[in-house]
């Protein structure tokens, strides 16, 4: 297979390096990732400055932009003409669960691949940021990924997979759960402080507050030692609300009343 890898942790991130090493013996691996960490960049494009590309080795490139920039540049220019079979964004240092996926650069990399017609996966490992472990079990995420690839999953059009793996030895993972997106927000999101010159500055941080972790959610699965696999659909339309909204707007006749 021809596999394109990107991430949001940056070109030198351990998760990306481990993923590349594990796949290149069996597949043709191409890497294009941000030069620096782009966590929280979401599905953003760089449009107000030029992008520069740096070659780190054969089929191994860094871009001074976002994960979305990387995928767009990779498919349309740097690796133009190559027919890719799969895009993998990761392995991210830290889970992308619940509402976090809307901010995630890792998820955005897979999203862009999906938009461009590629079977795409966002792959993350649930590292405990409070403990900052010395060793991260990237091999568990890789082993699950290889099982998935070798069994020939057929991807649905306009849908990509958001996969989160517990940071545990593979034998301690209980299994796989196909999940829906849970719900968690954050408290104390903005930290205010003062620099040595007396000027205020702000740091976006926060402690997760889980609002929904039902048994069918990604949050529940990972907390209970399961691999979470969530299919994410690109069409964000709320079809259930369309009929109600249509009736409301038609009955009120907003358009004609404004003439």
The CATH topology, please?
A: Stationary-phase Survival Protein Sure Homolog, Chain: A
If helices are DSSP runs of H or I spanning 4 or more residues, what is the number of helices? Answer: 7
Stretches where pLDDT is under 50 for at least 5 consecutive residues are: none
The CA-CA distance between the termini, in Å, is 59 Å
Name the beta content range: 25-35%
Question: Structural class, from helix and strand content?
Answer: alpha/beta
Tell me the CATH architecture.
3-Layer(aba) Sandwich
The biggest sheet amounts to: 9 strands, mixed
How many domains in all? Answer: 1
Secondary structure tally: strands: 13
Describe the structure.
By secondary structure, this protein is of the alpha/beta class. It has seven helices and 13 strands. The chain has a single domain (2-181, 213-257), classed as Stationary-phase Survival Protein Sure Homolog, Chain: A. The chain has helices at 14-23, 67-78, 105-115, 138-150, 218-223, 239-252, 254-257, and strands spanning 2-6, 28-34, 53-57, 60-63, 86-93, 120-126, 159-166, 175-178, 183-187, 190-194, 200-204, 207-212, 226-233. Helix 2 (67-78) runs parallel beside helix 3. The N and C termini lie far apart (59 Å). The mean pLDDT is 93.
């Amino acid at each position: 297979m021809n596999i394109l890898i990107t991430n949001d942790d940056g070109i030198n991130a351990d998760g990306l390096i481990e993923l590349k090493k594990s796949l290149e013996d069996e597949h043709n691996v191409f890497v294009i990732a941000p030069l620096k960490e782009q966590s929280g960049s979401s599905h953003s494009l760089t449009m107000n400055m030029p992008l520069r590309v740096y070659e780190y080795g054969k089929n191994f490139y860094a871009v001074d932009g976002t994960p979305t920039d990387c995928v767009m540049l990779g498919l349309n220019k740097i690796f133009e003409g190559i027919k890719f079979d799969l895009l993998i964004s990761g392995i991210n240092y830290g889970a992308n669960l619940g509402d976090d996926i809307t901010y995630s650069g890792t998820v955005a990399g897979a999203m862009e691949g999906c938009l461009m017609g590629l079977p795409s996966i966002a792959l993350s490992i649930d590292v405990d940021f409070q403990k900052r472990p010395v060793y991260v079990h990237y091999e568990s995420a890789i082993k699950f990924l290889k099982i998935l690839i070798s069994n020939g999953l057929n991807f649905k059009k306009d849908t990509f997979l958001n996969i989160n793996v517990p940071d545990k030895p593979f034998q301690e993972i209980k299994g796989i759960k196909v999940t829906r997106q849970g719900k968690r927000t954050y408290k104390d999101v903005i930290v205010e402080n003062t620099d040595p010159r007396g000027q205020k500055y702000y740091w976006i941080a926060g402690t997760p507050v889980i609002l929904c972790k039902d048994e069918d959610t990604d949050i529940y699965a990972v907390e209970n030692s399961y691999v979470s696999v969530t299919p994410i659909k690109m069409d964000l339309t709320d079809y259930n609300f369309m009929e109600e909204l249509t009736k409301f707007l038609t009955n009120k006749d907003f358009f004609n009343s404004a003439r």
